[in-house]
Design a protein that fits this description.
Layout (H helix, E strand, L loop, with lengths): L7 E3 L5 E3 L8 H26 L4 H36 L5 H12 L2
Antiparallel strand pairs: 1-2
Helix pairs in contact: 1-2
């Protein structure tokens, strides 16, 4: 399979993965993502501590649900930014196959 985009990399068990050298999103979006991920990282460490301390399972499960919700929020923010910048840029550059790529990504996210 010919790779027309120099930023694409063929994975062993995955479709083309775009390896861009820069983050194509606004600094405020990038900072918001990093801030949210830092909070999630702290929450995950907290869950680990709860398990180490034999915290009641219901309390741990509630914290796990909170982390899952927070990850969905990060995913939504990144997807929105991706659609507004990367996808638009690539379509404007004539790379219309990006629409199919986006649909596949959304399908995987919804599983």
């Amino acid at each position: 399979m010919k790779d027309q985009n120099p930023n694409c990399k063929e994975g062993e068990n995955s479709p083309k993965i775009h390896q861009h050298t820069t983050f194509h999103h606004e600094d405020k979006t990038k900072q918001a993502l990093i801030l949210r991920l830092n909070r999630i990282e702290g929450q995950v460490r907290g869950i680990k501590g709860m398990i180490e301390k034999d915290t009641y399972c219901d309390d741990v499960l509630i914290q796990i649900a909170a982390v899952q919700s927070a990850m969905k929020s990060v995913s939504k923010l990144l997807l929105e930014s991706h659609m507004r910048s990367c996808i638009v840029d690539r379509i404007q550059a004539g790379e219309n196959e990006v629409a199919e790529e986006l649909l596949k990504t959304i399908e995987k996210m919804m599983k």
